[in-house]
Amino acid sequence: MTEKAAWENIIAGRHPVKEALAANRSINKLLVAKGAGSGALQEILNLARERGIPVQYVDRSHLNGLVKDAPHQGVVAVAAAKEYVSVDDILAAAYPQDPFLILLNEITDPHNLGAILRTADAAGVHGVVVTRRRSAPLTPAVVKASCGAVEYVRVARVPNLARTITYLQERGLWVVGACGTARDIYWDVHLDGPIALVIGGEDKGLGRLVREKCDQLVRLPMAGRVGSLNASVAAALLAYEVVRQRRRAHGRVPDR
User: Fold this and answer.
1) What would the pLDDT profile of 170-194 be if each residue is shown by its tens digit?
2) Where is the RNA 2-O ribose methyltransferase substrate binding domain (predicted)?
């Protein structure tokens, strides 16, 4: 394998990929050669579809560049740098504390994701939720940007963020989204109970449906000419406001 392939946990060949899928290994995506025999790969594609794993069709030369020491047979799986967990795993790990989650709506920059995971670890967030599509997966670049925090933060990967928000609301969480056009500034609202913060993507912010699903929207005050802050900076500000309010609610003075 190339150095890049080794770093990205490449699994090559029909049988190894099928076994990885059957064993529920965390897979970021499948790469399938254009024109590869669909019959021989159909079982693999069906398994990927059942698990909601994205499939990307690429030129065979691309797979040849990734895998040099073993036959890829037209299919390669890119495994996650760390195993994903379920949303229920995160909620169970929070008990008996009030759950504190960060939900990411199409954060595509691995450096932003890594920085958010670093903040999540520092602020005591119980878990981070990302989407399967149009979001940065857990890759070595994310691991590096997180400065090791990815090893300590639970990350769930869901097919639909709006449905996940509804699921969390049914379990008593208050869902607060960061939105530049919101009426309330984030420090003026209560953030001290079971809570999920929703941070939007680098370019578009919160999607319309996700925005409508939130219980409350808050904004960061922007006194300058720049319209918004980096997603990881916004996540850090909101997360530490949750920390501050929780400490105050429990009669403790914030650290100086």
Assistant:
1) 999 999 999 988 899 999 999 989 9
2) 10-85
Q: Is 152:95 a contact under the CB 8 Å cutoff?
A: no
pTM (two decimals) = 0.79
Query: Is the distance from CB of 155 to CB of 101 less than 8 angstroms?
Result: no
Query: Domains of the chain, with CATH numbers?
Result: 3-79 (3.30.1330.30), 87-249 (3.40.1280.10)
CA-wise closest residue to 116 among 91, 133, 98, 136: 136
Q: b vs e for 136-168, b when ≥16 Cβ sit within 10 Å of the residue's Cβ? A: bbbbebbbebbeebbeebbbbbbeebbebbeeb
